[in-house]
Each structure stands twice: as structure tokens, then as C-alpha cells.
Amino acid sequence: MRLSRLSFGVFPRRGRRFWAVVTLVCCLVLGAESLWAGKSVALPWTDLLRRGVEIYQWSSLTDAQEVRLGQAIHRQLIGQEFAVYPDTVLTDYVTQVGERLLAGTSRTLPYTFTVVRSPQVNAFATMGGFVYVTTGLLGQVRNEAELAGVIGHEIGHITGRHVVKQMQQMAVAQGIATAAGLDSNRLTGLGLELALRRPRSREAEMDADRRALRYVLAAGYDPSGLLNFMRGLAGRPAPPSFLSTHPAPQERLAALAERVPPQAEPGFGLDEIAYRSAVQNRLP
Ligand SMILES: [Zn+2]
Predict the structure, then answer these.
(1) Do residue 33 and residue 152 come from a single domain?
(2) How many whole angstroms from 1 Cα to the centroid of ligand 1?
(3) Distance of CA 249 to CAs 109, 143, 144, 173, 236, Å?
(4) Domain contains 176
(5) Separation of 177 CA from ligand 1 center, angstroms?
(6) How do strand 112-117 and strand 130-134 relate by DSSP bridges?
(7) Would residue 250 count as lying in a domain?
(8) Model pLDDT, residue 188
(9) For position 40, what pLDDT does the model report?
């Protein structure tokens, strides 16, 4: 079996002995799990081997592989789901806010910030460093500190590898990753669905919020921007999808507020007039 020639082409070349050891270990672990659970081992050894290979493939996904998968999802996202909003000044502005936040992160990836044309107030991210904000969101936020809070949350999903972990579980469950190779088209479709339509877990949302607060504080933004934005949207009858998932916005807000250091110096980014002149007259 030449795993180094998988169709998706993302796994490193290794010797035959290496893969033999990996698959043997996976089989033993899976077999032991079944026995431990008190079940007889009903799966044939070929299935155990396949599951072992799938789990190994996903657990060893490198940053470069994640970026390549993210690029494929990005191409489809801006080709089929959304149109890029073609204002380079606006994109540069959003990128600057994103890069200021990235200084506080420890995961180095080539990040790409994209403004998409949509009246929905929304932001989302996919694996490999791709972050999106809608023109609707840019029109809704009142200042740069609020925008930084939202972008920080999406960066938090990437640094926390939340999308990768969610995709790992679904790809193995749906049989998209098999010993015959990763089905890149189906993986890309799944990535798109995860970025736009599937809610993240409660733990992932809370983790992304905590990360956002850290990045905002490290960049010098006033944390009230993040809190006020969430507070404003949480009170609306239909909060946007990136806030409306479990847990409830009010619960997330309370958890965040607890973490703001009481002695924190006032940060920047609260100037609403400066924000409006930078962004709002460039929106559709
Ligand atoms: Zn989120």
C-alpha cells in the first residue's frame, strides 16, 4: 500500500516498514477497544486496518496539508456560495485588523481575510487560515474594537483547530477518508458545509470566545467592543448564525465578561466616527 501516493496527495512519503507498524498498532488498539467494551470483535481485520489508516491520516494532518485543504474549500466558497466584495481598501482594512490580532496567536499559518457581499450579518472561518466577514457585518458593527472581537473569534476557531477536529469526526464517520485515498471533492464539500451551515460544539464556541478576548487584549483593543457587539446581537429576536448556535449568546457573554481583567487599561478602537469613515461609506 503506497500511502505516499494517496489521491489527495497530502501525506508525507514514508517507508513501507513505517506504515506496517502504524497500521499494526492501529489494529491492535481498535481490537483492544472492542474487547475492552466487552464486545466480540465482529469487524473483519480489513475493516480494522482501514479504520486505523483513516484515524492515522487525520491525526497527523500537518499545517501545510490543512492549508491546501483550506484553499480548496476557499475556492469553492467564493465560487459558489458568496461573491468577493471587490473593494481592496476595505479588504486591506479588515486584513490589518486581523493581522493585529494574529500577533497574539501562537499558530503561524498564511491567513487570508476576505470580505464577501451579503446583507446577512455574519462571519465565518475555515481551516488553513481563511476568515470571512460579510458586508452586512461591516455595516452592523459600530467601531473597530467590535469588528476585532468578531474576527478574533473566527481566528480562534482556526488556532483551536476546531474545524479540523469536526471534519476528522465527520470524514471518518462518512467514509470519506479511506485506505484507497482521501476523496478530495467530498472533503471540500464537507468543509464548505462545516464552514457555513454546521454549528460548532459548545466547547468550540466557548474556546473561540476565550481566544478572541485574549487576542483583542494582546492587540490593545478595548474588550468592551467584543462584549458590546455580542450584547447588542444577543438581544435581537434572530441573532446571526455565528451567534445563534449553542450555547446561548447570553451565556457566552456572561462567560466572557468574567474573564475581562478588572484593572485592564482602556484600549483603542472605540472611535465610531473613524470607523464609519474607514468602512461604512465603502459598503454596498
Ligand atoms: Zn464560532
Answers:
(1) no
(2) 39
(3) 29, 20, 21, 30, 10
(4) no
(5) 26
(6) parallel
(7) yes
(8) 82
(9) 43
Q: How far is the CA of 249 from the centre of ligand 1 (A)?
A: 11
pLDDT tens track for 33-84 = 443 344 444 556 666 566 566 566 666 678 888 898 899 999 999 988 899 9
Tell me if 216 is assigned to some domain.
Answer: yes
Q: How many angstroms does the Cα of residue 162 sit away from the middle of ligand 1?
A: 9
Instruction: Give 120-159 pLDDT, tens digit per residue.
Output: 888 999 989 999 999 999 999 999 999 999 999 999 999 9
Q: Could you tell me if 104 and 157 lie in one domain?
A: yes
Q: Check if the beta carbon of residue 139 is closer than 8 Å to that of residue 280.
A: yes
pLDDT band at 245 (very low <50, low <70, confident <90, very high): low
Q: From the CA of 271, how far away is ligand 1's center (Å)?
A: 26
Ligand 1 center–CA 250 separation, angstroms:
14
* Interval between CA 153 and ligand 1 midpoint (Å): 6
Q: How many whole angstroms separate alpha carbon 32 and alpha carbon 191?
A: 32
What spacing in Å lies between the alpha carbon of 100 and ligand 1's midpoint?
Answer: 20
Distance 205 CA to ligand 1 centre (A): 5
Whether 263 and 210 map to the same domain: the answer is: yes
Q: How many domains does the chain have?
A: 2
Question: How far does the centroid of ligand 1 lie from the alpha carbon of residue 154, in Å?
Answer: 6
Residue tagged 506496517 (cell numbers): 20
C-alpha cell at 19: 506504515
Range of the domain at 121: 64-162+196-282
